[in-house]
Design a protein that fits this description.
By secondary structure, the protein is mainly α. It is built from six helices and no strands. α2 packs antiparallel against α3 and α3 runs antiparallel to α4. The protein is elongated, with a radius of gyration of 18 Å.
């Protein structure tokens, strides 16, 4: 499942898609909620690094803000592990989307020459980013629904079947 999630993350960033409509934050939330804590951070970071390798790297300071936000998404997923409900998943999805918006756009304003380094420039930076936020929030919601929903519908059944097979194998070996 680890490799499949990474492939989905990379492919979805490389294939044509609306700007900022990507599964990386949803991957972090999902991995944190269902996988081992260390793996929760590896899945989205590796997917992002591989996709960035093909898309192209950019200012390391801005990249760092993006990767820190992705790590926070995984951390939110780890928290979700013990607090999993539809409402907590929805609130976490909204929270990581908002944090990503503010941190990465502040970083863009601070470390680039796209906007003047004034209060007006910062305001303009956030204003111009609103359409990207809408795509980001929608992408996070769609991918969270896909990952969490798919696992709840199919993953638990697969886990149950594997568990039964392992029990059968263990009984035969005893």
């Amino acid at each position: 499942m680890l490799y499949l999630l990474i492939v989905i993350g990379v492919a979805s960033r490389l294939l044509p898609h609306p700007p900022n409509f990507a599964p990386i934050m949803a991957l972090g939330l999902f991995a944190g909620a269902y996988m081992h804590k260390k793996t929760a951070f590896v899945v989205p970071i590796v997917a992002m690094l591989l996709a960035d390798y093909f898309i192209g790297f950019y200012d390391i300071r801005i990249m760092l803000s993006v990767y820190v936000c992705i790590g926070l998404g995984s951390l939110a997923g780890v928290w979700l592990k013990k607090n999993k409900s539809v409402s907590m998943i929805a609130i976490s999805t909204l929270a990581v989307s908002v944090i990503f918006f503010f941190v990465t756009n502040f970083s863009l304003w601070l470390f680039s020459d796209f906007y003047p380094h004034t209060a007006e420039g910062l305001s303009l930076c956030f204003t111009m980013a609103i359409p990207f936020f809408a795509n980001s929030l929608l992408g996070n919601a769609v991918y969270v629904l896909f990952f969490f929903g798919s696992y709840e519908l199919f993953g638990k059944q697969i886990d149950l079947q594997l568990s039964k097979k392992l029990q059968t194998v263990n009984l035969k070996n005893d």
